[in-house]
Each structure stands twice: as C-alpha cells, then as structure tokens.
Amino acid sequence: PKDPLEDVETWSESVDKVLSCKAGQIAFREFLKSEYSEENILFWIACEEYKKIKTTPEMISSANRIYSEFVQTEAPRQINIDCGTRENITKNISQPSLTSFDSAQKLIYSLMARDCYPRFLKSHMYQGLLRRNDSSDQEDKTTTAKGKGENASALCPCGIFPQHLSCVGSLYFLKRNCVNPL
C-alpha cells in the first residue's frame, strides 16, 4: 500500500494540499490543537461533510450540530468569525441549506491559510515529518512490516501513520490519537 506520508513535501505548496488528504488533516489538526485552535479545522471538515448531505432531515440535524458546536455564542468550540456572519447564520439556522455555513467556512479557511498554515510549515511537527520522509526515501523500499527491521512500515491502527513516527519529535500523539483506535 502507498505510504500516506509520501506526499508530505507537497504540503508546503498550499494549505489546500494539506487539507486535501487525510494524513495532512490529521497532522494539521494536531498542530492546531497545540495552538489551541483545533476548532478551525474541525469546523472546516464539518462543513465539507455537511455539503455532501443528501437528505433534508440529515441536513437539518447536521446544521444544528455544527451551529451549536461551533457557531453560536458560547459554543464549546466557538470559531472566530465576525458578528455579522454569526448573526446571518443564526437568523437562517431554522431553514438551513447546503450553503448555510459557506461564508463562515471561507473566513476560517482564510484564517488557517494566512495565520496557522505558515506556522505549521515551520513547526517541529512538520519538520519532523519531512525528515522522516527524507530518511525513509534513503531506506531500502523492500522493508516490510513482517519483522525486517525497526523501520518497518507497520501502520498505526488508523492506517495513516507508520507506528514508528510516534518517536519523531513531538509526534507521540499519533499513537494516542488514532482516528480509528483498535
């Protein structure tokens, strides 16, 4: 199987490259968590999932969940948006549409792209992933997870990150926070 971190170098091209792959989302989320702004990517991901909804009851339920978790004043993961955008969403939440959160999502995307993403690229976390990628490029590609060495490509339970990444810098979170723990 393809190494999910094979494209880690492309993440430096744009925030879109980070957000377009599961491994990038997980790494960026962990970075944002360290900056106490994890709500930004969680909201962005929730909006992306919301846009895929096909039924009205599911849309209403999901819109209310997103609103109560991220948008309303004093929400547990309140996002940083202007009061006009917040008021507009509040006014229309009783009759949500697939575009209900678009303006807020654009604001949060801009915030992440402008402020968080440049810091992510300079972070120990991202630099550790780059170093790991460079060193694995130099390793024998035939090494497998069947016990042929310490750098074997066994994946963590979520199937995204190699288990040995947990010892690279601050990346111990990968074992702790697998999205699909066993």
Shape call: elongated
For this structure, what is the CATH class? Mainly Alpha
Classify the fold: give the CATH topology: Regulator of G-protein Signalling 4, domain 2
Domain count, please report it: 1
Low-confidence stretches are: 140-155, 164-182
Q: Tell me the name of the CATH homologous superfamily.
A: Regulator of G-protein Signalling 4, domain 2
Helix content: 40-55%
Tally of DSSP β-strands: 0
Oligomer: single chain
Element string (H = helix, E = strand): HHHHHHHH
The SS-based structural class is: mainly alpha
Q: Report the sheet with the most strands, covering strand number, pairing sense and barrel closure.
A: none
* CATH architecture label: Orthogonal Bundle
Ends apart, CA distance between termini: 20 Å
Average residue-wise pLDDT: 81
Q: Strand portion, in percent?
A: under 5%
Number of helices: 8
Radius of gyration: 19 Å
Descriptive report:
The protein has one domain (8-135): Regulator of G-protein Signalling 4, domain 2 (Orthogonal Bundle). The protein has eight helices and no strands. The protein is mostly helical. The radius of gyration is 19 Å and the shape is elongated. Residues 140-155 and 164-182 have low confidence and may be disordered. The longest helix is centred in the middle third of the chain and has 21 residues, at 102-122. The protein has helices at residues 15-19, 22-34, 38-50, 56-71, 83-92, 102-122, 124-138, 173-176. Helix 2 runs antiparallel to helix 3 (38-50) and helix 3 packs across helix 6 (102-122).
